[in-house]
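Researcher: Please translate sequence to structure tokens.
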Amino acid sequence: MMMDRRTILAIALCVLFLLFYPQLMRWAGLGRYMEPQRRSAVAPADTSRARRAGPPGSAGAGAAGQPGATQTGSPAGAGSHELARIATPPPAGAAPERLIQVETPLYRATFSTRGARLTSIALKHYASAQKLTGKGHVHPSRAGEYPEAAWVTLGGEPTFGLDLGSGEGLVSQAGADYAESESLDASGQIRALTFTLRDSSGLVVRQTYRLRPGDYALDLAVEMTGVRADPRLTDYSLTARSWPLVTEATLPTDLRSLRATSLVGDNLHREHAPGLLKGARAFDGNAAWAAVQTRYFIGAVALVDGPARGVRSAAERRILSTEDLAILGPQARPEQELVANSLVVGLPSPEHPVHRYLLYFGPSEYFGLSRYHLRLDRAVDLGWSWILPFSSLLLRLMNWLFALVRNYGVAIIGLATLVRVVLHPLNMSSMKSMRKMQRLQPEVERIRAKYKNDATTMNTAVMALYRDNKVNPAGGCLPMVLQMPLLLGLYQVLFNAIQLRQAPFVGWISDLSAPDVLLSVAGFPLRLLPVLMSGSGLLQQKLTPSDPRQAPTMYMMNVMMLVFFYNLPSGLVLYWTVMNLLTALQQWLLLREDGAVTTVAAPAVVPAVGNGGRRRGARR
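Model: Translation complete:
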């Protein structure tokens, strides 16, 4: 028996409620009941300055577990998930720590000689939305560079570093005193940094960072000689750490997107911070890269040449600094999650002493990451693998439209229109099929009433009615199924594309990646765009011929859509509003084309075996 339209709508409403239940709870002010039980805060890990370890081989250097290692035999209570910390101070007589800053047109990076750590990277072409609060929209210079005070800074305490060993056999290099040398270009700018460590056993560790002007990537070469034959030390770890989340206008979205991502073989692992707080994860195998990322930024180390052994992912809570709390405001919690992701690599051999990597800290931009040909673009969430061809095409189209109109809001309108034009034949076919089904509904109801005690005869008569009127029962659903990849791909693009970050549209819509705010009343934001979207849904409903008994259900669905979309990014809401208006236009065109009422053909006589073997017919 075919489901009637009210049943389909009820199922759709239930699915939408399940999908958007978290947003609905947060909008109602009940989000705190959805948060996991908060653990006791721990001090922030600063393995580059405050917490030191001795040089390789020193006492206590290998006692703690590696960031990201799976803990075995540890209790399940509080603290079993925390990142390992080494608190041994630097050796007596060690040279004072030196910080070296290097600059390119895109970023300013800071390195430390203590542990050869990359402590932070400040991105010149991206502004922190939180730092701009109350100061109005700051426009970049003609070169695309923002004022220094507004730069997005990826500082992960440290952001990146190398340690010997892995897991519980980690030998931290956080307190090791590295010698540093620089290579300059013709203009006197630093283009390469080399950090060298020599210990009394003859071990030499050399790390060379080479900058790429005009690129967010750095080339890293790791050379080790004089490695002792120690069965407990067979590998080393390259660890990227996340940064305090103080850059986005919608902090909750950024917190939910914080994750450790890695590619091991062909398997992509996305481990979100809340899950890692319950326990670290280990992924053994041929690892391609390991990364930490938020919604719009990523820090990754990718293997170019070396024997990878796996990835270790972990998380803890960090105490925010006074400066970070001042940026976030008085309502901010004093702690945030931190994720660390380690690429574990076998030690170099005498025959192959140098391993090579690509280090990337910058925007999570799909096409920018794909050009390194290291499969880093898979870190950008554009949907499942079968949706990716559609979403990447739509992202390319949106970028092309932006190049023409120079406004991403207008580009979204153009993209939605283009998608609707491409899908127009399918949509019109679906609408026509639904209209035919609607005309036949009275006759279907009579057949169901007549054969209510004989399901087989009833179904045969209904199918005969459809056949005589040339109606395909699946004609209304099949076109909708065929266009789902495009619609899902477009959703992923509009939700995750960094191009929409702080992209203005018109008037009060100054950031298409965040919900619009027309004004606030007693702290509650009043958003106009979701209201316009709901109005476009009502217009579409008015132009869609339907059973008057279904009107209350449709009105309720519009109210629920308003609630669901109220706190979603304005780019998504704009897209949905345009799609509603274009659907209403298609309905209007169909009504014009279908002005005359088509006569319903009488159903043929349908022989069926009823009770007692009597023949029955289905005739009007």
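Researcher: Any highlights?
Model: DSSP finds 14 helices and 22 strands in the chain.
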